[in-house]
Amino acid sequence: MSKQIVYTDQAPAPIGPYSQAVKMNGTLFVSGQVAIELAPNGDIQAETQKVMENIGAILKAAGMDYTNVVKSSIFVKDMNNFAAINEVYGRFFTVDPPARETVEVARLPKDVNVEISVIAIQ
User: Fold this and answer.
1) What is the total count of domains within the chain?
2) In 3D, which of 4, 77, 71, 68 has the Cα closest to residue 34?
3) Residue 77, φ and ψ in degrees, nearest 5
4) How far apart are the first and last CA of the chain?
5) Counting beta carbons within 10 angstroms of the beta carbon of residue 100, is it exposed (0 to 12), middle (13 to 18) or buried (19 or more)?
6) Quick one: DSSP state of residue 16?
7) Which has the closest alpha carbon to 117: 55, 50, 44, 61?
8) pLDDT single digits (tens) 62-115
9) Is the dihedral of CA 40, 45, 49, 54 positive or negative?
10) What pLDDT is attached to residue 42?
């Protein structure tokens, strides 16, 4: 049982004492990803697209892709953006999407509008 820290320079570096992702026994836990460089411009679809691209880069660094994702968590500042987020998110999970919850929160790091984390299994 070995714990592997996964890191790629194709996604934002952690802004605190955490890893981009941790892989253990074939399970990858990806920390919440945000689009720091796009916030808070208000374009929720552009932010969501960038967040999903960041997740994809981390999955790739771990030898996985979106088909390996079994669970995701979405945190959003405004639930009125639910449909817009879904539109972008759905492009990455066209078949057998993962289990998921979407939660409205008061504030997110760096004042972004959306944060997404995933769990993937190899």
Assistant:
1) 1
2) 77
3) -75, -25
4) 15
5) middle
6) S
7) 55
8) 999 999 999 999 999 999 999 999 999 999 999 999 999 999 999 999 899 999
9) positive
10) 76
Between the alpha carbon of residue 37 and those of residues 42, 81, 111, the distances in Å are 12, 19, 11
Nearest to 111 by CA among 49, 60, 38: 38
Rounded distance between C-alpha atoms, residue 60 and residue 94, angstroms: 18
Q: Which of 86, 87, 78 is nearest to 113 (CA)?
A: 78
User: Tell me: the pLDDT tens digits for 2-39?
Assistant: 899 999 999 999 989 999 999 999 999 999 999 987 66
Domain range for 68 is 3-121
Residue whose structure tokens are 């008061």: 106
What tokens were used for 116?
Answer: 């997404």
CATH label of the domain that carries residue 10 = 3.30.1330.40
DSSP state of 122: -
Whether the Cβ atoms of residue 82 and residue 48 lie closer than 8 Å to each other: no
CA distance 60 to 57: 5
